[in-house]
Amino acid sequence: MIPEPKDATHLDDGNVSMQEKQSVPTLELQNLNDDDIKKERRLTRRIDLRLLPILSALYTMCLIDRTNIGAARISGIDQDLELTVGSRVSIALLVFYIGYVIMELPSNILIKKLGAANWLSGLGLCWGVVTLAIGFSKNWITLTVLRVLLGICEAGVFPGCVYLVSSWYRVREIQKRLAVLFLSASFISSFSNILAYGFIHISAHPFTAGWRWIFIVEGAITSAIGLFSWFVIVDFPGSPRNTFLSAEEKATVESRLVQERGTSEGEKVTWKVIRETVTDWRVWSLSFMYNTGSVGIYAFLFFLPIILQDSLGFSQQLAFLLSAPPAAFAVIFAFVVSYFADRMRLRGPFMFLAAVVGIVGLCMIGFLQNPVPRYIGAFLGQAGTNALVVTGLAWGQNNDAPDYVPGIIATMVMFLATAILAPVTSFFMRRSNQKADAGLITIEGAVGFRYTW
Predict the structure, then answer these.
(1) pTM across the whole model
(2) Is residue 4 part of a domain?
(3) Residue 284 is assigned to a structural domain of this protein
């Protein structure tokens, strides 16, 4: 094990200066004996157990609270808040991303200033309260405003978790950890529909007014986890708050990071950095691939219960229950992909594999008639989208600068592009609907069909 250097400053914000990095000895795996390798593996397992479960719990509730409106829609919220009028549903779903876009970039600046435990636990408490408040909404405007606040509070969670995980592990170790973080949350959140089915029965009228209890109970759970997480989340490796590691172990972790990152100074956010980032085709390529997976993830989380009930003809109870198995399969598939991607130190071929699997699944859902193969398509579709997200995320993190500025900016740019494309697309779809209403055109060759804009 490496003793703590006397002149080294801890990596309490994930970065060190040139002089500080040169003062920390490097840890060369090829020079370690078997005992040292075993000690390092034990240390890594200790970090895993302290870091990953609590971050996974927070991100699980993050996914549940932003997507539970799908379960609420088949439990009475559309009727209670008159969401079926015009495009109110689309608006309520879209506005979440306004706050998300605004706060995503500042979040990783704030996490370094405030500390990971303070920032992430504070966010958990705040969005938990907002989720709980949605359960008391009296009209669709209140719901919409609260969804904006939810986006603001949740924006810092995933980038903060990714930044913290990436600050503790080697490049070859990152994808498996990110897979644990993302896939465990995705898997558990898929069962939220089953839990929601239980929560709605707290109401005397579960199928018309039970939706409120989904938000009330899940918001209370999130708030409790947010408070608890402050006592569990570890800050960056060199922080004095991390008392679960000895000084010797902290030095070992820091040495691992310096070996991975070299001696270059981390970039600061400047207009030059932003300009260079947004004009780099590789940034757009990685961002687009990651964003493709994200689109699929949210499509399944938001709409799979509705597809199962309205399109495939299953009952409400089965729509809740059958939304979980595809997510379970997706977790297994994506984690296998992550294991081999880390083992082989490759990303591109596995992104291609994930995309092909996802395309096959979506084609089965969209173009087949029999409910059984269409349901099987949901397994493949979710498997592909989950694998795309974790592989794309790891690919970007592996190639970012030490401050992860390019990755953060690239993600923000993709959200900005979506924020621009969404109203433009809505405008043209609405105009097509108006022409169809006037009898000037027929949309998609189907009389009476109208776009949801």
Answers:
(1) 0.66
(2) no
(3) yes
Over residues 106-127, the pLDDT tens digits come to: 887 888 889 999 999 999 999 9
pLDDT digits 0-9 by tens, 192-224: 777 888 888 888 777 777 899 999 999 999 999
Q: Exposure pattern of 330-363 as b/e (b: 16+ CB <10 Å)?
A: bbebbbebbeebbeeeebeebbebbbebbeebbe
19 in any annotated domain: no
Contact, 261 vs 402, CB < 8 A? yes
* Nearby residues of 271 by Cβ (< 8 Å), 6 or more positions away: none
Write out the two tokens for 362: 């979506």
Write the DSSP string, 221-264.
HHHHHHHHHTTT---STT-TT-TTS-HHHHHHHHHHHHHHHTTP
Looking at residue 138, what DSSP letter applies? -
> Where residue 72 sits, what CATH number does that domain have?
1.20.1250.20
End-to-end CA distance of the chain: 60
Residue 110: both structure tokens together: 């704030």
Helices 271-278 and 405-437: angle between axes, nearest 10 degrees: 60
Task: Answer yes or no: is 17 within a domain.
Answer: no
Instruction: State which residues form the domain around 336.
Output: 43-262+273-445
- Kindly report the three-state secondary structure assignment for every residue of 25-69: CCCCHHHCCHHHHHHHHHHHHHHHHHHHHHHHHHHHHHHHHHHCH
